[in-house]
Amino acid sequence: MLEPIVRVAGRDFGPREKASDTLVVSNLSVGWDVEIYYTVITGPREGPVLYVGAGSHGDEVTSIYVALRLAKELGPDELERGAVVVVPIHNPVAVLHKRRWGFIDHLDMNRVWPGDLEGNISERLAGTIFNNFVLESDYVLDLHTAASDGANAPHAIAPPEGWFKPREERPYAAKTDSSLEMARFFGVRFAKRTSAGEVKKYYAYYPGELHVAAPQHGIPAIVVELGEGGRLSSEEFKLGFNGAVNVARWLGILKGDPVEYGEPIILGDFKAVRAPVGGIVVLKARLGEYVEEGSVVAYIETPRGTVEVKTPYAGYVVRVRRYAVVEPGERVVVVAPPLPSRED
Ligand SMILES: [Zn+2]
Fold it and tell me: What is the CATH number of domain 270-336?
């Protein structure tokens, strides 16, 4: 038999195959199985394996749609080498719930990677996907969208520097952390470099996020944030679909030359600008705009008058609130300062 191009979900896939199937994760009280749906597309010869996943959060429609359309439209004839593996819905329970988290365990699935096969359902989903798909891949694109009350300027999130630990046993494994190059070829304007301090603060006991867990196993990974929770955005769908295709071209998996986008603006840690009082939010700042420290980013209309919301930070507006009622302390916008370039 020919050498398999990729082995996922316990199955070998040979050259020029396209297959979709489900993998059982666990059984529920009512007798239903929770399953993961996946698609594998292989090229004519060995090469790197690109994993594309979405739907860790159940209301992130645009990113799920990008993954579904990639699974539908890519075929073996478009591949030069290697394979593309797509899991469009990481957390089917959360999609049924129409919320960020599922109704069974209420866990945020993007805080439990690399998962636990004996844990709660979200941990089992993550563990099953990590062991069966992620570890069999060489690069990871984890597609996300803002939660239902907000919208994101499209951006990538790279793991912290020093988080990548190379692995030797795979012939097409990355030698170094190429997550920022993935972000560049995806074509997003912004890329966030998570600081090591931020990771330690939130994930003291486990890496938690997929793009943080994967590089510890030698797999460069980025999150890509696309659009507004609960809504399908055609503009951001196109960005996401074309971005994933371009990354696959850069890796030599898909035929065709990749588009050479410019370097993304590298952003530091995201800082929330919070509502001083409750009321109706009238946004002034626009997504992607650069705001100066002390400038007005929104007005809050209250029965007692109008209150200005000023940002204490300078930076790019990477997230805005879409649900227009706000209570004290809730996020109105999120601002990210650009990091100085290495030449500075
Ligand atoms: Zn998400």
Answer: 2.40.50.100
Hey, where are the domains in the chain?
6-266, 270-336
- Domain 6-266, CATH class in plain words: alpha beta
Cα of 223 vs centre of ligand 1, distance in Å, is: 9
pTM over 0.90: yes
The answer to whether the beta carbons of residues 184 and 263 sit under 8 Å apart is yes
The CA 152 to ligand 1 mean position distance, Å, reads 11
Q: How far is the CA of 305 from the centre of ligand 1 (A)?
A: 35
Distance 94 CA to ligand 1 centre (A): 11
Model confidence at 168, pLDDT cuts 50, 70, 90, reads: confident
298: confidence class by pLDDT, cuts 50, 70, 90: very high
